[in-house]
Amino acid sequence: SNRIEYPEIHEMNIPLHLLERKPKKDPRVFYRFYQLCKKIQPDIIHSWGTMPSVYAVPTTKLLRIKFINASIADAPLDLDLKHPDYFRGRLTYPFSDVVIGNSKAGLKAYKAPAGKSICIYNGFDFNRIKHLENKEKIFKQLNIKTEKLVAMVGGFFERKDYDTYIKAACQVVAQRNDVSFLAIGDGPDLTRCKNIVEKKYTDRILFPGMMQNVESIVNAIDIGVLSTNSKVHQEGISNSILEYMVLGKAVIASAGGGTDEIVVNGQTGILIDALNPRELVAALNRLLDDPKLAKEMGAKGRKRVYEKFTLDRMQEEYLNLYRNLCLTNRQLIS
């Protein structure tokens, strides 16, 4: 794909070279990448993703360029060589100068070599929350009629456990009439998940799809949930959880993976067993019944993001890494 996920790249006024794979397994990319690097002579090659790392390895060795392999962004259980990302990782780690994961759990799950691995946590861009719409506008936009609001933000893919979230939501709205639930996102499982909800609850369990103003919506909720399908996935550092916390919302999330490194159980939120609707219902009712506790957890979560998960901190850690690798390069040359 020639799609660049971050529009900021286009604002940096630097040359962009797009090497498309046509077909998907295109061996010509190896040569084209080698020729490009031979021409521009970079000090460091920094890959994101396991397939880019595979393409990078021959060039880094032939041209003696320092190689940062930043391919670890989740923390799956029971990985083996049948898992393509794990296989590619095992293939490329020996040729990497540094292996980066966005969680310690991820580095452990992929068995990244301890001597060359570092964890750099995702940083939150606080500019995203500078211009928020007020709660009344959001409630009107989404037609929310209840006092309280709960949301889960994430794609409707197998790795997200919307089944547990929706089943728990159905139980809670059957027990009480003061709360509505949002399932925000899109994906192949969306239609199936909508069909789980009984018709009598469809006015309080809502599926608004992809939303451009998701930060404003999160700012209007009382509780943020992230339910993960631990059979196929464990989170790295979840951006959804960071959004909940920076906006001062109590978090309920499936324990495991990098989530345990963000959420301090009992302080900034509640960690529950994955795939367990009963535990989720209990956690939801606990926080809905005790808004003071929810606000205290939200405040502690916000403080934690500002202390450990800032974009400035993330940038500084990457800059220090680049400086150290460039310094090592110069020492080797001299």
Instruction: Summarize the biggest pleated sheet.
Output: 6 strands, parallel
What is the CATH T-level topology of the largest domain? Rossmann fold
Q: Strand arrangement, largest sheet?
A: 7-6-5-8-9-10
Category from helices, strands and their pairing: alpha/beta
Oligomer: single chain
What proportion of the residues form beta strands (DSSP E)? 5-15%
Helix content: 40-55%
Rg over CA atoms? 22 Å
Per the principal axes of the C-alpha atoms, what is the gross shape?
elongated
Task: Give the termini distance in whole angstroms.
Answer: 40 Å
Give the arrangement of secondary structure elements.
Blueprint (H helix, E strand, L loop, with lengths): L27 H13 L3 E5 L1 H13 L3 E7 L11 H9 L5 E4 L2 H6 L7 E3 L15 H8 L5 E6 L8 H14 L3 E6 L5 H5 L10 E5 L4 H7 L2 E4 L12 H8 L3 E5 L4 H4 L6 E4 L4 H13 L1 H18 L2 H23 L1
Parallel strand pairs: 1-2, 2-3, 3-4, 5-6, 5-8, 6-7, 8-9, 9-10
Write a structural description.
By secondary structure, the protein is α/β, with parallel strands linked by helices. It has 2 domains: 7-121 and 311-333, Glycogen Phosphorylase B (Rossmann fold, 3-Layer(aba) Sandwich); 126-308, Rossmann fold. It has helices at 28-40, 50-62, 84-92, 104-109, 135-142, 162-175, 190-194, 214-220, 239-246, 259-262, 277-289, 291-308, 311-333; strands at 44-48, 66-72, 98-101, 117-119, 148-153, 179-184, 205-209, 223-226, 250-254, 269-272. The strands form 2 sheets. Strands 7-6-5-8-9-10 form a 6-stranded parallel sheet, sandwiched between helices. Helix 1 packs across helix 2 (50-62), helix 2 (50-62) packs parallel to helix 3 and helix 6 crosses helix 11 (277-289). The mean pLDDT is 95.
